[in-house]
Amino acid sequence: VPLARALRLRTRASAAAPPETSRRALLGLTEPELRQLAVDLGQQSYRGKQLHDLVYKNRAKQVEEFAYVPKVFREALVGAGWNVGRSPVHHAVTATDGTTKILLKLEDNRLVETVGIPVDDRGTPRLTACVSSQVGCPLRCSFCATGKGGFARNLKGHEIVEQVLAIEESFKHRVTNVVFMGMGEPMLNLKAVLEAHQCLNKELKIGQRMMTISTVGVPNTISKLASHKLQSTLAVSLHAPNQRLRETIVPSAKAYPLEALMDDCKNYFLETGRRVSFEYTLLGWD
User: Pfam families, from UniProt (predicted)?
Assistant: First the structure.
């Protein structure tokens, strides 16, 4: 069963993840957490506020770029295994309508894709970042190129956040909307998705109502998401009006009957008061 296989792959993802020391990213931490880090490394608390500004306002990409932080503090950060948590752009391509696709090269040399979509909304410029939640995807929907490439690992929270920063730097414009609709199934990496969602909201000041979390449907996860009572839209990749057809397009649907999925969507609305949208991919059939 594809979904059962996906869940097994998720449990193996930690084995493919980078070493523990490489996970110590400053990106994703709150100001209180950065203040505590400064104190733990023998500095005064206000140095943590400086770290916060350097990471989120100045957009420094390496600890060595922390110009107004004492050298001894920079060395202590590096010695303790901390880095900013930013990845270099491996490749970028822009379409005629301005949509830009960016490949980031992660610290384990894997590639992840993010897309910036500029829109002029009746004279008001809007920039949407479409972010990935996994490297690859284990669900293998029939129409999706990502699934055909296999699944490597879950992204960490800061690896999701940095995609938004990369889009902003490419467009030199603030991201106004975020959709978790890139590579991977967000509900199979819900912990990191929620961490990224909180960081984008609290640290980058992107409103919860300006974010959408997409899913093809994973049992018992929509209710978990609803329990957090986020003010974000849930987008369900439906792709078919009945269970039989949906199973041919989305193999994981065999473990999640359409009726149960619709019940969970209804409960999400009742729990959060936020709308649920349904997505279709138009496919040609012989």
Answer: Radical_SAM (PF04055)
